[in-house]
Structures are given as C-alpha cells and as structure tokens.
Amino acid sequence: MTETQITPTQRVQQWLDGFSEILQSSDPGRAAELFEANGFWRDLVAITWNIKTLEGRDHIRDMLEQTSKHVLPSNWKVAEDATEQDGVTEAWITFETRDALGKGHIRLRDGGAWTLLTTMQELKEFPEKKNFLRPKGAQHGATKSRKTWLEAKQDEEQELGYSRQPYCVIIGGGQGGIGLAARLRQLDVPTIVIERNPNPGDSWRNRYKSLCLHDPVWYDHMPYLPFPDHWPVFAPKDKIGDWLEMYTKIMELNYWSSTECTGARYDEASQEWVVEVVRDGEKVTLRPKQLVLATGMSGIPNIPDIPGMDSFEGEQHHSSKHPGGAAYKGKKCVVLGGNNSAHDICAALWENDADVTMVQRSSTHIIKSDTLMELVLGPLYSEEAVQNGMTTEKADLTFASVPFKIMPDMHIPVYEQVAEQDADFYSRLKRAGFLLDFGDDGSGLFMKYLRRGSGYYIDVGASELVAQGEIKLKSGVGIERINPRSVTLTDGTELPADLIVYATGFGSMNGWAARIISQEVADKVGKCWGMGSYTTKDPGPWEGELRNMWKPTQQEALWFHGGNLHQSRHYSLYLALQLKARKEGIDTPVYGMENVHHLS
C-alpha cells in the first residue's frame, strides 16, 4: 500500500506503532528520530511527572532515555478518525503507562511528528468513583451502626483538622482552590480549603460592583458541574459568587471560611507542613503532607510608593479594594493604570457621574469582546463550537496541544485580522492619545496573558468612553508626586483629585509564600508565571512552560495553583493526580525541574 492510498487515521496509527515499538526496545531514545528535527513533545504529568515541553530531538531523546523504562508508555492508539489539512495530519490518541491512562494529540507533517501532547487522565489503581464506580449512596440492609449521609458528613467535618489530619491544605478559597478541592475529593484525598472570607464566593462579591467576567461562559466552566445552558455569556460577579458557594456545598468540600493562615513551615523530619490558622477566633494547627497556594495567578497587590502619599486628604486604594463608583458622584477621580481593572473602574465611575481621568503609563493591548469571541475564542469556546460537537475537554486539550514556543506564530495572523476588522476603532483610540499595542511581537491577548499576566483590556465599553473623551486620558506619564488634593504627573501636569485608585496589578504568587512561609522559601521556588520569552516583563531564559504552576517546585510538597477559570479547571486535574499519586505512595520521579532564574 503506497503513502497516497492510506487514510490519515492509518498514517497516524502506523506512526504510533513504530513509536511504540521503539519505546519498548533497549534504546527508547531512538524514538526521537520519529519527530521533526525541531519537533515538540508537551507532556502534562503522564511521562515526566511534571508539566514539561521538550523542544527538538535532543531534548526528546534525553527525556525518553531517563523516563521510558520506568514509566513504560504503551498501547498507543488513534482514538477517533484523524484529519488532514494543509499537509498536517492531526489525531486524538490514547495510551497508557505503568501507573496511568492517558489521552493525547498528535500533528504529523511529512511523516514526522511536529507536535505531540500527552496528558495523564487517570491513575489505574485509583480511578475516580464515577460512572460504574459511583457510590451507592443508600446503605441497604439492616444494621444498628447505620449512619446517614448527613451524620457521616458531620463526623468528617468535626474530625478533619482536629482528631484526623488532612493530607492536603489549600490556602485560598476562590475558584481555583474550590475546583482543585473538588478534584481531590473525587480522588479520596482528605483536603481542607482555608479562606479568610466568611463565605465561598466572597472573593468575587467583594470586588467593585460592575465587575463581570470578560471571558465567555463556554471558557469558564468548573470541573464536573458545567454552567447550565441558560447561564449568561458574561456572568456578573455576584452570580459567580453564588455559583461558587453552591458548588462548594454540592461537591461536599471541607471549606474553612472565616479562617486565616498566620504561618506555615515545612518540617523536614516528619515530612509534613505545620500550618497555623485562626478559625473563627480559635487557633488551630494543621499538619498536612502537601500545601497548595491557590491565590489566583496574582500575588500581593502592587501599590507604588509615590512621594506625598501620606499627605493626601482624599481617598486612595488599590483596585482590589475598590467598592464601585456609587460613592464618588461629582468627585475628581484619578485611576493609575490602563489595563482591565483600570478600564472597568473608570467606566463605573463615569456611570456614576464622577469626573474620571485614566493615567496610562505604558501601552495596552485592547481587543473588543465581540471580536475576541468571533475570531479568537469562537472555534473552541462558543455556542457554535458546542453545536459542532466541541466539548469543554476537547477544547482544553486542543489549546494545550499547541506548544508555547509556536503559539505566537499561530496567533499573529489572527490578531492581524483583528486589527484590520476593527481598524476604525483602533484609529479613534489612537487619536484620543491612547497607547496601543498587540504585544511585543503582535501575538495579542493570550500571549500577553501567559507571558506577564497583564497589559491588556477586553473591551466591554470603556474604550469607547476613552475614544470619546468621556473618560479623560493622560498617557505616557506616571504620577510623580501626590499633593493634599491633587496629583502631579511626570510631565508637570497637576490633576485635582478626591480619589486615587491604584490599578497597578499584583506581584508574583510567590509573594504569598514569602508572607505565609518565609522569604527564604519564596526565593527558593522563585517567580511564578511567565515563560522566559524575553518580552516585556517576561525575562529569559526560555523555559517553555509557566514557571512553578501546577507542578513540583524547588520546595518539597509546595504547589501553586491559579490562573483564569479555564486554566484552573484544566490544570486542576493534573495537580490533583500528582497529589493523589504521592498520597498512595506511587513512585513519581520528576523529570526536567527548572532552575530558579528570577525571585519575583
């Protein structure tokens, strides 16, 4: 049978058969020759017990030589019919290792693998109790020791953290901590979530009144319980808060609200954490084996140190503490910053008849929400995608299948189309003096988000107010000095001010490690987020994956979990599987731990 006669599915299966044969030979590293010279293998825990992208044959060969004989990858199969377009054959695949079942995705080009994604989906000996394995619920028969579901739940709540220690403690009870705790619950990993707010969802409820999700509903589902079909496309913050509170209850999480972590340290002798918390005024010491900081993708708020701050007679606060615009009618308001929060807050102040000026220090990437939906997210996360058979899981894996090194090349043409489609919109913003960019290399929103977690705004209305001059703008300047009732900008301009909002972002997540554990541990794990792309605010060297996120760190038994709702949902699976494997004593040799290059 010639090459032109075989189907795309047969072509992929032939590649997988040859690949599998080499992996089971005495020289598994030879399988690297089946990749393009500059091909990519992205592994999410399945082979490396890490989140790791191997770039080029040499790196792939080294990984296989160090892992194959222990991990024993085998049984590589095409999961559904492959497709072919523009000389690239793509297919979904399944495989297994000694300990786990996996799913993946492959792209072949001219007979060689261009990209390969492998992901761990389930531990063979410890599957989730679902489908045929779901619990019975009812306890049929007669017994004098019978406990109802409620009694068993109450017993667990009274014991865990007191007479019985959790295996894992998650600090941070927002959507990330809640979603991860749900995964761990399904894997029978005793877990406590620590949250200082009184109720689940309060981290959303406490934000400024106008806050809504800027990402669409199809992108934002939680694990296990997707939003219902009538859920709004862009959910208001209080609706999200209510959903998270409901989710926490339905998923039966051990959620300690009104609890603050006052300190933590790792006990090398006992190989466990000593976590001090205050719960409803009572001091409690927890001793988990694993500690997860789930504080979003952000660290402690960045508040600039500006001369004269102490002299200001008005009100000043960080955007994370902004209550909304209602209290500032008729007030002179200055918002320092030009990204998402700055735009949202400026628009809310304008709606409440405040006199508001945005101080934009550096350029911002703007994309209209409708354009983002149509040109960027639509193929994977939209009602049309759902109707065409796209599932949330397949969308997540499709996105994950593109190595970060080549992702900019795929995004640049899309954002060129965005710029052309909305040329008039961008022209009007520029005429208003707004500083625009599409990222250092023109790759747009997602690469800016992944590289630095800042520098963008998804326009849901505020940009039009800037273009029209309704929101006043001072761009290319900062605040040089704060006076009792005004601010002096770096160009000498003085703006009267009753309110100053510092929409100046957040530090790295390891700032929470410094505050909760120690600066030594924060420096030991280093900066979180970014990939080393050598672009603005993401210094090199290149690492190929987000620093420290959802994977082992240089501090034993310390993990970071965060990101947007999509990332929290998708990567919580891999973090949960890593934690479950350690709980059950499965050998988890980590390949490719990165050195620490940046402390914050």
UniProtKB/TrEMBL annotation:
GO MF, one example: flavin adenine dinucleotide binding
Keywords for this protein: Oxidoreductase
Top-level division of the source organism's lineage: Bacteria
InterPro entries, sorted: Auxin_biosynth/cation_transpt (IPR050982), FAD/NAD-bd_sf (IPR036188), NTF2-like_dom_sf (IPR032710)
Annotated protein name in UniProt: Putative flavoprotein involved in K+ transport
